[in-house]
Design a protein that fits this description.
alpha+beta; about 120 residues; two-stranded antiparallel ribbon; 2 helices
Length: about 120
Amino acid sequence: MRNQTRVLPWTTPEGNPCVLVGPGTGFMSRMADNIESVQLGMAGDLLGHAADTISDPNSTPEELRFVAARLTESLREVHRIAESRGDRLSSLDDPDVDDVDDSDDEGPQLPAEAFG
């Protein structure tokens, strides 16, 4: 196994990113996976709540600002997760990838730009 760099789904008290270097199989990686799962689940729940608040004509400006603030926090977390996963995917360096014969593969092909 080789080491990989992973941006963790939390920051330091000063707001700086936390980074883990390792094979991606240890306790901290599993904890980060669990926290990312919770953050993504909460983001989904928040979307429903935000839609309800926005569509309610009786929502107050304070309620709308509150939901906007929570959406901003959630988007920041989801963005950090997406960037971290994208970085980990782009850092994969499988030397055998070019040697694979995929001429029988009829699936859609994504352009290289889709991977960062």
